[in-house]
Amino acid sequence: MYITELIGDYVEHLEVERGRSKKTAENYERYLLRFRDIALDIFDQDPKLRIHAPTTASSNTDQASAQNPTENSPEGPDDDTSDFKPIDITPELLRKYRLQLNREVDRYGENLQTITQAYHLIALRGFLKYLAKRSIDSLDANLVELPHVIRKQVTFLHYDEVQRLLDSIDTDTETGLRDRAIIELLFSGGLRVSELVKLNRDSINLDRREFIVRGKGSKDRPIFISEAAADWVQNYLNARTDSLAPLFLNNSRNLQPVDTSGNYRRLTPRSIERIVQKYAKMAGITKHVSPHTLRHSFATDLLMNGADIRSVQTMLGHADISTTQIYTHVTDQHLKEVHEKFHSETE
């Protein structure tokens, strides 16, 4: 089998057997097809790199084989130079591929970021592991080393900044009540914006102040919210006169009687982002503030107040604790105590 067909099989495997989202599978497919295209360019420049070299029809024997391929191979003639086989993925091809990735430029003429290169290599490594499980000879997945990625500095709001953000909202209107409820939920529950916009009225238990969301990888996790957040959501719902299902609605009055679900008025992630940025500006907060900033603020607030990192990992829905550890460098109370105890004061 050739690489293109195997990539298709792998993408289906991700969706059906691994339970990955359609979006994740599409991303993996895009990265792997890019690998295929780059590899074919490398083979064009240096055909000797191919282990399974395509045959040519230059001799009479080869011509006869091409006319009657089943005599030599049950798969037909191996003369497809527009594809290659898994055995052709060698350490040297990998080296050249990584070099090419490092030299790639995007549509803006910028080199690919290290994290983007890492995504390509993660997809390739997963694909090679899949081939190994199917006993298909190819490169050992362990030889695909990921580049060291320097994570962006975490931007978060301190509690007083969150309070300024909330105080900037005029709650005398239904829109203001909605916006206050949104920001309270983002900070109190650590929700991703994609999770927030999917909430319906019946998704959230305001009496128990807890509910379940389905996050990345279709994984369910519990969300707990403060009494204040529950009260503001209830205030917003009390002000509404509709019976539509979505928890948060836009202000459109465009009536669509055919759509009884109410999804035509469901707020989008982009709308939530604009709402958060609007009040951050009104509050005089100069740092970039997004819905995800409030998720960062949720995590750092918990850790600064003594929560253990494993619990925060669960509440954030992180599969790997290393993802949660990005917050520890700004929340390590022990380091602050050491600094205050041992560092000299200036006069």
Task: Give an overview in words.
- This protein has 347 residues and is an all-alpha fold.
- The chain has 14 helices and two strands; from the N terminus they run H-H-H-H-H-H-H-H-E-E-H-H-H-H-H-H.
- Strands 1-2 form a two-stranded antiparallel ribbon.
Show unreliable segments. Answer: 57-78
The termini sit apart by: 75 Å
What is the percent of helical residues? 40-55%
Number of helices: 14
Mean pLDDT score? 86
Using only C-alpha atoms, the radius of gyration works out to 27 Å
| Number of DSSP-assigned strands | 2
Secondary-structure content class = mainly alpha
Q: How would you write the strand order of the largest sheet?
A: 1-2
Task: Provide the succession of SSEs.
Answer: HHHHHHHHEEHHHHHH
Rough shape?
A: globular
The description of the largest β-sheet is: 2 strands, antiparallel
Strand content: under 5%
Provide a brief overview of the structure.
The protein is mostly helical. Helices cover 50% and strands 3% of the residues. The chain is built from 14 helices and 2 strands; from the N terminus they run H-H-H-H-H-H-H-H-E-E-H-H-H-H-H-H.
